[in-house]
Amino acid sequence: MRTTLNISMPPLQKKNVDRMIKDYNYTSASEFFRDAVRALEEDKLIKDIMESEKEFAVGKGKRLHSLKDLM
């Protein structure tokens, strides 16, 4: 199920979005924004994983052998 979201933006930003929709062959503004949100979610996940790896490398992590180790 989908829901509708209305957004507002300055005219120049709307013009840039319209250009990117055309340049990247999106079929709609909805498709463009869904893809943008997915990319941001993926970027956040990658950053979180990298931060966890850094913490683990300096000994701040705990190796889990099973899900029971989380409790």
Instruction: Kindly state the number of beta strands.
Output: 0
User: How many helices?
Assistant: 2
Overall shape: it is: elongated
Q: What structural class results from the helix and strand content?
A: mainly alpha
Mean pLDDT: 93
Report the biggest beta sheet as strand number plus sense, adding barrel if it closes: none
β-strand amount: under 5%
Order of helices and strands: HH
The gyration radius over C-alpha positions equals 19 Å
End-to-end C-alpha gap: 35 Å
Helical residue percent?
A: 55-70%
Question: Which residues form runs of ≥5 with pLDDT under 50?
Answer: none
Account of the 3D structure:
With 71 residues, the chain is mostly helical. Helices cover 59% and strands 0% of the residues. The protein has two helices and no strands. The chain has helices at 11-23, 29-57. The protein is elongated. The model has no long low-confidence stretch (mean pLDDT 93).
